[in-house]
Amino acid sequence: MKSEKLESLKSTIKECLKNLEVLSEKSQLEIVSKEELKSIKNLYSELGYYKSTTPRVFLIGEFKAGKSSLVNSLLNKNYAPTDILEMTAWISKFWESESDYCKINFDNNTFEYTTTSEFLSNCERRDFTTDYLKKIKTVEFGIKDFKKNYVLIDTPGFGSINENNEKKLIELAYEADLILFIVDAESIGSIKEAAIIKEYIKNGIPYFVVITKIDLVKDQVELDEIKQFIQKHYDAEENNIVTVSTDKDYTNSGIITLDEKLKKYANNFDSNKRQEAEYGFLKIIAERLLSLLDDLENILIDIKKRVDSFNTYIDSVSGTIKKSLQIDIEDFSKKNILQNKREQIVLEIGTVLSNSNGNISEEQLLNILKNNLGDDFLEFANKNIWNVLNVKMKEHWLSYLDEIKEKSFKVFVGIKGDVNDNNGGYYALSKVGNYDIQLDQITSKAFSRGMKGTLGFAGVLTAYAAWFGPAAASVTLPMALTGIGIPIAVVGGAISGLLAYKKRNQTKDMINSYATGITDNVVIKIVQDIIPQMSENITSLNNNFSNAIKNQFYNENMIGIDDKINLEKVRSLKSRLRNDK
Predict the structure, then answer these.
(1) Per-residue pLDDT tens for 204-238?
(2) Nearest to 247 by CA among 285, 275, 214, 204
C-alpha cells in the first residue's frame, strides 16, 4: 500500500464532503439526502481511530485503578466519567476529530450522538438508568483540540463481575499498538492482574506499566518496593515502569513524562501495519459517496435538461419579441421621424414643385429638410426611439409574464430528491410557487447595459447620422447636409421620375401628391437606414433582457448548483474516487 494513494483518497473524500455540504446548505433544491450526508460525515469523523500514523494506546488494569482519571490528565480536560459503577463500565475511545462529539454504541448495534460535555454531565448527575448503561458497548469521543499523536482506549477493569466486560477487553486487546498497564499503588498484587500482564508482555506487545496514585505512597522507599515487586512478579523491565499521580495538587506527577514517552513511541511508530486498515475504512466511505454522487449526477442531468428547455423557451420568446420590436420601431419612425414638421415639409416641397414646373433640386430639398428639422433632429430622434423601444419591450415581455412563471414552475415539478423520503422521493421546489420576475428592475438593468455597454448615446447618434453623411457621433444636420447629399439616391427611382416629369397643367392635387410622395420616400429611406443599424442593438438589448430573466431564475432556484457544484465536477469527483480506491 503506497501512502501517496492513501493520501490521495483521503483528499478526494474531503473534497467530496466539502462540496456536498456546501450544496446541501446553499442550494434551494433538496437534491442531496441530508441524512445520508450526515451519516457519511459522522463516519468520516471516526478516521482519527483508523489513521495509520496514529498508534492505539490501550489502558488496562483493575477496576478503579485510575485509568479514566489518567485519560483526563493526559488530555488536560475531563472527558471520561470517573465515578461509574463497575458493572456498567464500557470501553471508551478518544481521538482527534474535526469537531467535538460523543458517539454511544450499544450492544444491539444501534448508536446515538451527543456532546462530550453532555455525556459527562449525564454520567455525573446519574441521569442514565442502570439498564441504559448496561447496554452501552463503547463510547467514542471525537476531540477537536486533541493535540496528541496517538489514540487512547480506556477499557473495563479486571475482576469484573460483568463477564461481558472481560470479553470486550479480550476482543480489543490485540488491536493495541501499545498497552498501558495501570497499577494502583494502594492495591497492587492481584493474581489475575499479574497473570494478564505477564501474558501480554510475553507476546511481545509494547507496553508501559503505569503506577497510579503515588501521592498516597508514604515515601520513596515504599515506591521503590512497589517497582521491584512489579519487575519480579509482572516480568516488567525497569525502564518501562512510570509513576504518576492525577492529583492536581501533587508536584512531579509524572503525567508529562508519560505523555512524552507516548509521543516518542508514536513518532517512531511503523504506520505500514495499519495502512490497510485505514485504506479499508476510507474505501467504505468512498463507496457511500459514490452512491450519493451517482444519485446527484442523475438529478443534475434531469435538471440540466429542464433548464435547457426553459432557456430554449425564453430564447424563442426573445426571438418573437425582437421581430415585434423591429416592426414597432419601423412604424414609429415612419410616423414620427419628421416630428410635427411633415405637413410643413410637404407644403414647402409642393410650393417648390409648383413654382418650378414640377422640378426640385437637391439643394432645395436639403434646405427644406434643414430648415424644418433643425440641428437637434438627431438627438430628438434618438431619445424618442429609445423611449419607444423601452416601453414596447416592457409591454411585450409583460404579455409573456404568466406563461414564463408557469414554465419556470414546471421546471422543478417531479425532480427526483431524497429517494428515502415518504413521498417516494419526488417533490416540487416550494419556493418556486412564489417565483416572480421583477420586470421593471430587469428592464432598467437591461437598458442601462444596452445604452452604456452595447451602443451608447454616441453610437445611437452615429446610427442616425449615417444616412446624412459622415458617420460620426458629432454630426449635426447642417454638417450632414454638406456631405454626400440625399435627393435622387434617397427619394428612389419612382419619385425621380416624378421630379423629371414636367407638365404645365399640373393640378394642385397632383403637385401635393408629388410632394407627399417625395416626403414619404425620404422617410422610407431614413427608416430603411435606421432599422438595419438598430437591429443589432435591438438584438443586444433584447438578449440582455432575456438573460436577466434567466439569471433571476438561476439566482432564485439554482443557488449552489451552477456556482458550487455541477455535472462536470460531480463526474470528476466520481472518477477520482474510483481511481483512488
Answers:
(1) 789 999 999 998 888 889 998 999 988 888 888 88
(2) 214
